[in-house]
Design brief:
Elements: E1 13-17, E2 21-22, E3 25-26, E4 34-38, E5 49-54, E6 58-61, E7 70-76, E8 81-88, H1 100-109, E9 113-119, H2 134-145, E10 148-150, E11 159-161, E12 164-166, E13 169-174, E14 181-186, E15 198-202
Parallel strand pairs: 8-9
Antiparallel strand pairs: 1-5, 2-3, 4-5, 6-7, 7-8, 9-13, 10-13, 11-12, 14-15
């Protein structure tokens, strides 16, 4: 997580999937300068979704929507609140949309906008994959049904390892946030991960 050093003087929220843990604690995290939120795991089965945020941001964990594979928070602003979720979709699970549906249902029930960053393990031309699969089709239906928007721009691979390359990491937002997301970028730098760093800006109303 060395890349977080570059953001230590800025306001940021980082959505991480498959983080590395040492025992019950995430590795290489300085809790003195960051807020670290994640669900429960064990020494053998670490949490696979985590959110890290700068100390200056006002956030709160949504415990009912947080588990080993998803972490959900409220981001509080003086004029609004936004729900933010980091989610890992296990390709071995029969449920393609694992817990994301509950987050979207919650956002609609409380009338708040939502941002989801997920390792989807799914392929779809909706986010410029070279091919599509059945998991991607389930995601497409879910996105359409819930009036969500895919923020991914371009066709840079988000996953790159010795066994292959693909675009499986996606950013989803509710419709009213579409025009407030800017500079969505897949970075080329190697941060010792099979997944590329993705960054974007969220503009708030003041």
């Amino acid at each position: 997580m060395v890349e977080l050093i570059n953001f230590k003087d800025k306001q940021f929220i980082c959505l991480i999937q498959e983080p590395h843990f040492y025992g019950f604690k995430p590795s290489s995290i300085d809790r003195r300068s960051m807020q670290v939120l994640h669900g429960k795991g064990t020494k053998k089965h670490w949490p696979r979704a985590m959110i890290i945020a700068s100390k200056g941001l006002k956030i709160s964990l949504i415990e009912a929507l947080t588990s080993r594979d998803i972490t959900s928070i409220n981001l509080h602003n003086s004029n609004e609140e936004v729900i933010i979720c980091s989610a890992y979709q296990d390709i071995t699970f029969p449920e393609t949309i694992n817990n994301i549906d509950k987050c979207v249902e919650h956002s609609q029930r409380v009338n708040k906008d939502i941002i989801i960053g997920t390792d989807s393990n799914a392929h779809s031309q909706l986010w410029m994959s070279e091919s599509a699969n059945s998991r991607g089709e389930v995601f497409e239906d879910f996105i359409t049904l819930n009036n969500l928007f895919v923020c991914n721009v371009g066709n840079k691979f988000t996953y790159d390892c010795v066994i292959g390359k693909s675009i499986i990491d996606i950013t989803l937002v509710s419709t009213l946030l579409v025009d407030r997301i800017g500079n969505w970028t897949v970075h080329d730098e190697d941060y010792l991960s099979d997944h590329k760093l993705i960054s974007f800006n969220l503009n708030f109303f003041y």
